[in-house]
Amino acid sequence: MLFRILQGVGIAALLGCAVLALQGTPLLGPEWSRARILYAGAGAVSALSLLAMGRIGLMLRRMETAQAALLSRIEGRKGGE
Description:
The chain has 81 residues and is an all-alpha fold. It is 85% helix and 0% strand.
């Protein structure tokens, strides 16, 4: 659950950074703002790290489940011998 929350916050942060970057252009802002675009880029790095941490956590949980299943299979074979 925690890892999904991390991913959700990361996606929301990426969307916020995209809006902030677009506000630094004439599309959504009054003129070009290099500082706003750079600030959005720095925030996007942090947002991507949240997404990565969430994904790594989910992969670890999946690996632990597979390892436990494999261990129970091995122990089952030892008991049958």
